[in-house]
Amino acid sequence: MLWTNQVQETIDFYTSLLGFTCGEKNDDWNWAAMHNGEVEIMVAKPNQHTEFDAPKFTGSLYIQVEDVESLWLELENTVKIVYPIETFEWGMREFAIYDNNGYMLQFGENVKEK
């Protein structure tokens, strides 16, 4: 669950840029669930009992994909980049971006097995 004050903008980011489908949305709850293959991400606006000024996630979401190179070429000029595509010594080819809220998303493909 990713907290955001921008539920619709977040849905738009994930569906238009990353190929997710919004499977469920509840405007009364300020909540939505999106999926792309086996990956599901839920977003919500925190309720009034929770202090929330801005996202404070101290990690990243790591998503393994089958064609990281093509995804990089689609996104490299349209999103805020954390680090560009690179092959790491542990056998992953990956890159990282920020979503519209500032959450870090890493996309990687195992190239050791190829």
Distance between the termini: 33 Å
CA-based shape:
elongated
Major β-sheet profile: 4 strands, mixed
Mean pLDDT: 94
Could you characterize what this model shows?
This protein has 114 residues and is of the alpha/beta class. 18% of the residues lie in helices and 41% in strands. The chain contains two helices and eight strands. It has helices at residues 7-18, 68-75; strands at residues 2-3, 21-26, 31-36, 39-44, 60-64, 80-87, 92-98, 104-110. The strands form two sheets. A four-stranded mixed beta sheet has the order 1-4-3-2, covered by helices on one side. Strands 5-8-7-6 form a four-stranded mixed beta sheet, covered by helices on one side. The chain is elongated, with a radius of gyration of 15 Å.
Summarize the structure in short.
By secondary structure, the protein is of the alpha/beta class. It has helices at 7-18, 68-75; strands at residues 2-3, 21-26, 31-36, 39-44, 60-64, 80-87, 92-98, 104-110.
What's the helix and strand layout?
Blueprint: E1 2-3, H1 7-18, E2 21-26, E3 31-36, E4 39-44, E5 60-64, H2 68-75, E6 80-87, E7 92-98, E8 104-110
Parallel strand pairs: 1-4, 5-8
Antiparallel strand pairs: 2-3, 3-4, 6-7, 7-8
